[in-house]
Amino acid sequence: MVLTPSRSKQGLFAGLLLLVLMSNYFAYRLPAIPVPADSRAVVLGSLLDFAIVAPLLILALTRKKGFTLKRFITFMVIGLVAARFIIPAEHFEPFKFIPYAAIGLEGLIVLAEIWLLFLLAKHLPSIIRTLKKENASGLFAFPTLVKEKVSSHPIISIVAAEALMFYYAFASWKRKPPVGERFFTLHQKTSLLAFNIMLIHAIVIETLGIHWWLHDKSLILSIVLLLLNVYSVFYFLADIQTVRLNPLKMNEAHMQISLGLGKRMEIPYDAIEKIEWGNEAGQYNLKSKDVIEFIARDFEEVKPQCIIHFSRPVRAILFLGMEKEFCTVAIKVDEPERFRMMLESKRSLPLPK
Questions:
Q1: Could you give the angle at the alpha carbon of 45 between the alpha carbons of 44 and 50, nearest 5°?
Q2: Based on CB atoms within 10 Å of each CB, which residue in 227, 234, 283, 319 is the most buried?
Q3: Per-residue pLDDT tens for 271-294?
Q4: Beta-strand (E) ranges in the chain?
Q5: What's the predicted TM-score (pTM) here?
């Protein structure tokens, strides 16, 4: 097996992390390595390893999740608490306050995040009024308003995404899908909604059967499984409504495209470098990491009708408000000819100032 540069780096960081942990563990336990009577310098070196070196190595191992100060502080706190158990008590005595100080710092961060949630609750009525006044799509406008008025913190993004899920699952059934020449559906000629309904039925049947069987085996596990299944049903209900109520929309300067709660994107026309249509689009490799698909699932293989290449990476919002940039998007709509005519006309028009 040939190791790629990425995997070889992962192995190097994992090896270094293991070396740091094992060397600190055996430094206090091997008779061949006597610890001096005044061990404060040795313990201080170990604390630096657990508080700085080890967290940096863990961040390097999980770099795909991003290097953030909060993640570093979290790993630092975990490292210092672990040091309390690895370093013998007689050597750790002068530094016993450090883990408590680290936990206190993590507690302050948690309090700050709770404060952000209160701030979101405070601004929520004004955000809802703005959405109603502008008659904007909540799927796109709500997270943007939350970022503007509250924060772009990941906790807030997750809460906003969950709020959208519960809205579409319970409060959107009186709404009708928007229609007009600017709107294009992605699902009506596919089995996407039927597929989601089948999943809901399967989850309900599984809940009725497995929950009662598991109830006698493990009460806690049965309750956890029940809650996960109930959440899944709510999610798929919301996903159905999101698909129905949010067709692709052609605005003046950009188009808004989504496929359920799992992915959505605003594509500026000036970011489009090249478009492939028809057979050329159908033969495109969709497995690349730089490609995002807006193709409704069906019981048979579905190929894209349109491949749009960007001149610069364009941000997409994924599950739970996570963000990722893509260089290419694959699209399949129910009216491909009308979509092609309008998209080409939008690209040829001067953008509004």
A1: 95
A2: 234
A3: 999 999 988 888 888 888 889 999
A4: 183-184, 248-250, 254-258, 263-268, 272-277, 291-294, 306-318, 323-331
A5: 0.70
